[in-house]
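Quick one, C-alpha cells below. Sequence please?
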C-alpha cells in the first residue's frame, strides 16, 4: 500500500476530531489545525497508535509526529512527516 498525503490527512482529521469531541474542545479540525496547541501530549501519544493502526504503518518510537524542533505542526505538516518517517506494514 502506498500512502498518499490526502489519505493521511483525512485519517488524522478523523482521529483528531474524535479526540476533540470527547475532550469537549470546540475547535474546527481540518488540515490547518494544530493538535499540539489544544490536546495534551499524553493524549496525542495515544493518537499516534491510532494513526498507525488506521494507516497500517509503523511510526518509530522516538518520533513524536506532532512537533518539530519545539514547534507545533499542523495536520498537513504532520501528514507530510508521516509520509517521510513511517514504514508501511506488510
Amino acid at each position: 500500500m502506498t500512502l498518499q498525503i490526502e489519505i493521511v490527512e483525512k485519517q488524522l482529521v478523523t482521529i483528531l476530531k474524535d479526540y476533540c469531541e470527547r475532550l469537549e474542545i470546540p475547535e474546527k479540525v481540518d488540515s490547518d489545525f494544530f493538535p499540539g496547541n489544544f490536546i495534551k501530549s499524553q493524549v496525542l501519544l495515544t493518537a499516534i497508535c491510532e494513526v498507525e493502526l488506521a494507516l497500517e504503518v509503523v511510526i518509530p518510537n522516538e518520533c513524536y509526529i506532532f512537533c518539530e524542533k519545539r514547534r507545533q505542526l499542523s495536520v498537513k505538516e504532520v501528514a507530510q512527516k508521516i509520509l517521510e518517517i513511517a514504514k508501511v506494514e506488510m
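Residues 5-22 form the longest helix (18 residues). Residues 5-88 form one domain.
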